[in-house]
What we know:
The protein is an alpha/beta fold.
Amino acid sequence: MKTHAGFVHLHVHTQYSLLDGTIRIEDLLKRAKDFQMPAVAMTDHGNVFGAIDFYQQAYRHGLKPIIGSEMYVAPRSRTEKSPPGSGENSRHLVLLVKNKQGYKNLLKLSSDSYREGYYYRPRIDKELLRSHHEGLIGLSACLHGEISSHIVRGDREAALSAAAEYRDIFGAGDFYLEIMENGIPEQRQANEGLMEIGRKLSLPLVATNDCHYLNRQDAAAHEILLCIQTGKTIEDQDRMKFHTDQFYFRSPAEMQALFDYCPEAIANTVAVAEKCNLSLDFGEFFLPHFRLDEDKSLDEQLGKISREGLQRLLPVINPGGDEEITRKYEKRLADELAMIKSMGFAGYFLIVADFVNYARDNGIPVGPGRGSAAGSLVAYATGITRIDPIRYGLFFERFLNPDRKSMPDIDIDFCQERRDEIIRYVTEKYGRDNVAQIITFGKMLAKAVIRDVGRAMNIPYGEVDAIAKMVPNVLNITLADAIKMEPRLQEVAKKNERIQKLLNYSQALEGLNRHSSTHAAGVVISDVPLDNRVPLYKGPKDDVVTTQYSMNDIQTVGLTKFDFLGLKTLTVIKNTVQLVREGRGIDIDIENLTLDDKATFELLQRGNTDGIFQLESSGMRDILLSMKPDCIEDVIALIALYRPGPMNMVSDFIARKLGRTPISYVVPELKDILKETYGVILYQE
């Protein structure tokens, strides 16, 4: 293949241009690599949702990533919420990041566009741009850009004035006039005007293609996507449309041929790419600042409250005062503290212990602990968990170990009704600018995408619903697999051309991001205002501020995620305790219930577990009836068994427990470890 390194795409919309771009990042990078391009840009509408994912993947493909965004610029002030007389409330402008300062400025601009400028769209204004232009390159954008729109309306003076203003904002050499060849008649008019302005103001031209889909044949699926976005059908005459099929990821050869009349616009794409040299450092952790006692370090503070906590617990753990048992606990605590210190995570434990203990002190029900964090004696001693890891043979190393350098991840369950109080507490403690919830993206999965596409194609609901219901109920099934597994889908597609199109469009759009929402549990707390490290997002209809980066990307850039899970069961328990107190005058200490109550195990053995957390499904009741649990360890084992991995061990486990199968061990050395699970290797530890 001939090398075409003489062109770089600088205006590209991926699937993070929600319901407007169909380009998946992996597909984009593979195509750029096939075209032997040295770099490629990502410029999604009004956001930088996918920047970290794009950055990392690009380098894995051997390409230079150019992070950017096609921003919306308010005609006057971003705080003005009424449209001007022309009917426009925003104009497009492409921003590309040159360096780390430009990246920080893009984060700030994008954050403020949502928090301060949102009016139909997230908007910045020229005042904000003047304050945060350093390290950024500006491109004049499409026909919806300020300069091109003035040209098309016949106001060359306004276009010239706007171009001069942007030149002054970005500085000499960092503002480019963007010309395109997309088959739209007005674009020719705009190009001619842009070239004239370029000559008058000595502004460089750059050729782009405003890519919204990867291949030319994807244009029809993109039209369907726009219908889904706008709530229109493909038959609506007044729907939003692109009018041509030219907005695809053209090859360098195509672009060079299209712009043979202006070769400098092609050459300038490479010049821009050479200016963009953002380098991001991953692997550093940024913990919030925890207020300490005077003259103490984070490690000393954690050691102090851990040892004090263990001393309070020892009379319960070791009522006989056995010195050997006490030494065992003290050694385990010292070892854990040494590991936490070596990994630099003392602050994390202090922060979690602080908000968990705030909840307990304020009567907000908190779960006893879940996941690998239950293996930490430090977590137990500081009140984060209520589980003695030594009593249950849990290993700290599964939670933290030096071979896996990653931030600890402790999931905390709170009463669903009062979870917001904890978020409010940490927001007030660490600062409103330093705390946010985390964004997540809903995807167009198999059944849902069929229904979306069916509406856009104006196919009667009953027909579409029948097709969607043919997709097998298999977790995360793809349409390709569904068509292979379900002969009826193949048959109906062969008989009905419209259904064939429905399935084709659905497969083209399957898996794309459909909308953004708020992660059910994740909260990020930063050491500095968050918009210094990540872009922020605020929906038009709510006051919840989230990050624009999703959970994995938040952790990649070194920020600390805390999981505040709202658990309905805790609310039910709280209400039950209150009703018993009010109705019977009995105070139940839910934290110190006996674990060997005979009547409770008889209830479990009968399978009477409606409403009992983790034990109420029909499959779980069947196992309870077969197993006949008679101790807490059996219940623990049962919950571990009822997961996809160990499910095939259920019958063997029950047979060994009930004495129908002899208990045996793979090697004798495993007996002490496996005796409580009857020789079955059940736990990940």
